From TrEMBL:
Molecular functions (GO terms): catalytic activity
Pfam (any one): HIT
UniProt-recorded name of the protein: HIT domain-containing protein
Histidine triad motif, short sequence motif: residues: 114-118
Lineage of producing organism: Bacteria, Pseudomonadati, Pseudomonadota, Betaproteobacteria, Burkholderiales
Species assigned in the record: Massilia atriviolacea
Ranges of residues in domain HIT: 22-129
Superkingdom per UniProt: Bacteria
InterPro entries in alphabetical order: Histidine_triad_CS, Histidine_triad_HIT, HIT-like, HIT-like_sf
Length: 169
């Protein structure tokens, strides 16, 4: 079920209008990102600091920091998309499993104060690598080298995977 267009929260709209939010900038096409999917309610981008190859962020258009401040339809739609992206990854052999994670607030390690759902491809035996990347992804100078080219290649892979699914668009 897609959220209806008139399900907006005026407080969230005011916050988006008065604070600079990188996700709001990406949604409005004012900031670059490796976008793999976009519809009227949500955008899916590759995480600029991925824990694994193909790590996605699903971002609702409506700006809210906490999930409980979003309309229930938007929350449901966000998690439905997460499930569909997880299925695409598994069906195409890109992952054995996924971690679907939502950090809800600063104390929960939410780095951007705009609700977003992580869909992280996982494989057997990758725990040490994921933990290492989690601990170093913002401080590792090597992570910046060639990042944009890597993200562009991964976005192309995602678009190819999505081409023959109901998520194509």
């Amino acid at each position: 079920m897609r959220p209806t267009e008139n399900n907006t929260n005026n407080e969230g709209d005011r916050m988006a209008a008065t604070h600079t939010c990188i996700f709001c900038e990406i949604i409005a096409n004012r900031s670059p990102a490796a976008v793999v999917y976009r519809d009227a309610h949500c955008v899916a981008i590759l995480d600029a600091f991925p824990l694994t190859r193909g790590h996605l962020l699903l971002i609702p258009h409506q700006h809210q920091q906490h999930i409980e401040d979003l309309p229930p339809e938007t929350v449901a739609y966000l998690f439905q998309l997460g499930a569909r992206f997880s299925a695409v990854l598994r069906q195409n052999g890109e992952s054995e499993a996924t971690a679907v994670v939502l950090n809800n607030g600063k104390a929960a390690n939410q780095h951007v104060p705009h609700v977003h759902l992580h869909v992280i491809p996982r494989r057997s035996g990758d725990t040490a690598l994921v933990v290492w990347r989690y601990m170093t992804r913002f401080v590792n100078p090597w992570s910046y080298i060639g990042r944009n080219a890597r993200l562009a290649r991964q976005a192309l892979t995602w678009k190819t995977l999505l081409k023959d699914t109901a998520l194509a668009g």
